[in-house]
Amino acid sequence: MNRIIHAPVIQEEIEQLRSGDYVYITGKIYTARDAAHLRMYTAMEQGDALPLSLKDNIIYYMGPSPAREGRPIGSAGPTTSSRMDKYAPLLLDRGLKGMIGKGRRSQAVTDAIVRNKGVYFAAVGGAGALLSKAIKKSTVIAYEDLGTEAIRELEVENFPAIVVIDSQGNNLYDEVVKEYRTYPD
Predict the structure, then answer these.
(1) Within 13 Å of residue 7, how many CA atoms lie on the same side as its CB?
(2) Which of 2, 65, 153, 171 is the most buried (most CB within 10 A)?
(3) The whole model's pTM is what?
């Protein structure tokens, strides 16, 4: 099913999403990769404030290439999500509602998604140039010294993603494997 959602997200909309749904996201989302996650995690462990509110927000695991003239951002494809698995449960427990990346997530992340009624989306790897067209504005808001791994606020319009893990813990990757797995008689 095709769905349109706005970010920051509304809890009821997140809970209606099902694994396998195609989603188009409009609004503000944030980027963060490995180094930014480590800094946020360390800050939370030390009781320090984060540079952004996690409440009802979505983090896109992405580090863009330089923007071409007249564009707000360069190629903006997803990075491998499992690299953030150590940090994601705490971020979800602190109010994060969605993550966009590619690839499988750990059981701890799935449990945190269910516990917090969140969602994990996949963006198509290798389609960074195409995905960048949905990004209308990009502003570095924290950790500028990290370069492409700095936290950015993105204004997106109809950013395409697929629900992989929904708020009930249904996992598209597992469902597809079951559907296409064959056993000899």
Answers:
(1) 28
(2) 171
(3) 0.93
Q: Which fold has domain 2-180?
A: fumarase (3.20.130)
**What was the pLDDT predicted at 1?**
78
Q: In this structure, what DSSP letter does residue 103 have?
A: S
Confidence class of residue 44 from pLDDT cuts 50, 70 and 90? very high
Q: Dump strand ranges (E) for 32-134.
A: 58-60, 98-101, 119-122
Quick: pLDDT tens for 64-80: 888 888 899 988 989 99
Q: Which residue has the tokens 């140039």?
A: 129
- Name the residue with tokens 């960048």: 132
In whole angstroms, how far apart are CA 144 and each of 51, 110, 139? 12, 30, 10
Instruction: Quote the CA–CA distance of 171 and 175 in Å, as a whole number.
Output: 6
